Amino acid sequence: MSFNAYKITRVLPCLADPEKIRVVAEVLGEIQKVFPYLNATLEGCIYNHPALTLTFKKGDKIITLHPLHITLTKIDNEEEAEKILGWLQNLVNETYLGRDKIQPDYTMRQELKPTDIIKLLPGTNCKKCGLLTCLAFAFKLLRDQIGIEKCAPLFSDEFTEKRKLLFETLRNAGLKVPAEPFESGNS
Q1: DSSP 3-state of 130
Q2: Which of 14, 96, 114, 183 has a CB 3.0–4.6 Å from the CB of 138, allowing a cystine?
Q3: Cα–Cα distance for residue pair 64/56, rounded to 1 Å
Q4: Which SS3 state, helix, strand or coil, does residue 135 take?
């Protein structure tokens, strides 16, 4: 198995961000054999073994690998797509070459949903974050449009356990979390 080459076959409007593009590239060689190894080494992957797809983020870009093609979303232009595809080709080939040192992970992680996050937020709808509801905050948090530090009540002693669980959940999904829990000044 090796990821020998790729060819961009479609450039479409991005569904997640209308100012960006979505790129589909065909892959020469079947790359699905590396998916469990990438799932073991990349943070926040969503691996669907039965469907043979692996989705993860690189910054704000969303990358989905299929056996014979790759989809990139939230891409600025074709030049950026080429850079990401080149990086991805190296990542796939290096991971496959080093697979004997990696325990493959066939775990099928689910994509986080706002309803998963809302359970771990204070649920006060206090509006201190600038949004009307905690559910609106959860949506923006998952889209990386707001930082967790904007939820002032979460950093009070009352919500220490929820905060720890939320930080772990976000970290496992590959989302940004402050390195150390910090005080928001409202504890």
Answers
A1: coil
A2: 114
A3: 7
A4: helix
53-58 vs 46-48, strand pairing mode: antiparallel
Does residue 4 contact residue 64 with C-beta atoms inside 8 Å?
no
Residue 184 has a pLDDT of 41
DSSP state at residue 43: T
- Give the Cα separation of 171 and 111 in Å (integer): 13
Element (H, E) at 62: strand 61-65
> CA distances (Å), 170 to each of 110, 123, 152, 173, in order?
12, 17, 17, 5
Q: Are 63 and 72 in contact (CB under 8 A)?
A: yes
∠ Cα 114 120 125 (to 5°):
75
Q: How far apart are CA 162 and CA 91, in angstroms?
A: 35
User: Taking a C-beta distance cutoff of 8 angstroms, is the pair 21, 28 a contact?
Assistant: no
What are the residue ranges spanned by the domains of the chain? 5-101, 114-172
Task: Give tens-digit pLDDT for 61-92.
Answer: 989 999 999 999 999 999 999 999 999 999 99
What is the second-level CATH architecture of the domain 5-101? 2-Layer Sandwich (3.30)
User: Whole-prediction pTM value?
Assistant: 0.65
The span from the CA of 74 to the CA of 23, in Å, is: 9
